[in-house]
Amino acid sequence: MNFHGEDLRKIYRTGETEVHALRGVDLDIEAGEVLVLLGPSGSGKSTLLNILGGLDRPTSGLLTSGELDLTALDDAELTRFRRDRVGFIFQFYNLIPSLTAEENVRLVTDIAESPMDPARALDLVGLAERRDHYPAQLSGGEQQRVAVARAIAKQPGVLLCDEPTGALDSATGVRVLEALEAANRETGATLVIITHNAGIAAMADRVFHFLDGRIARIERNAVRTSPGKMTW
User: Fold this and answer.
1) How far apart are CA 177 and CA 226, in angstroms?
2) DSSP secondary structure, 175-215, as one string
3) pLDDT tens digits for the chain (232 residues)?
4) Cβ(45)–Cβ(166) under 8 Å?
5) Cα 198 → chain centroid
6) Which ranges in 26-74 belong to alpha helices (H)?
7) Which of these CATH numbers, 3.40.1080.10, 3.90.640.90, 3.40.50.300, 3.60.160.10, describes 3-229?
8) What are the structural domain ranges in the chain?
9) Is 213 exposed, middle or buried (0-12, 13-18, 19+ CB in 10 A)?
């Protein structure tokens, strides 16, 4: 899935106070690429990710994906967009404790248009032998990989990841990033990752450096580095 954005702005208002989270962002995201959004807290990364995923709307500007004008969709249409085309992966896993790994994945496949078999999704992230385990029986990294499997099982056009390794140690984080890379490679989904960790930028095709609500710089990597070979 690709995106095109023009002069995207987001203003949050509390009483008479205005917070300018995005200050005129122009962007093009290519279908199937791995993109890292890098920058300090409050620089606008999460705001942009939420707008790309249809969780929020820009105050002004244009955002399209193919022939779809996301800024013109109503709430019901945005819900369908999120359900059918977007996979979300957050820092915290949001698994249901009373369900097994496979059952947590199946929650998504039961409502998806063209889902992947849950067992295949778990195999893709290296958890085929843990499919019958409950979250409490899994390590933090394994739980995050279940969350990755859940996101990719509906075969979305884009995977949006907000600090997916933020709560993990470096070795465990590598396993999660390898699972995301495998999902990008196997399904062709565009992969967008928010991080504070500059080392993760090496796995991306491009890096958007954010500062004060703007893309301050765009860096293209001539060769992507696999997560296992990155310097953290």
Assistant:
1) 9
2) HHHHHHHHHHHHH--EEEEEES-GGGGGG-SEEEEEETTEE
3) 999 999 999 999 988 899 999 999 999 999 999 999 999 999 999 999 999 999 999 999 999 999 999 999 999 999 999 999 999 998 888 999 999 999 999 999 988 888 999 999 999 899 999 999 999 999 999 999 999 999 999 999 999 999 998 888 888 889 889 999 989 998 999 999 999 888 899 999 999 999 999 999 999 998 889 888 877 6
4) no
5) 17
6) 45-52
7) 3.40.50.300
8) 3-229
9) buried
> Which H or E run includes 28?
strand 17-29
Residue count (the chain): 232
How is residue 14 written in tokens?
A: 């509390």
- Please give the Cα distance from 152 to 121 (Å, whole number): 7
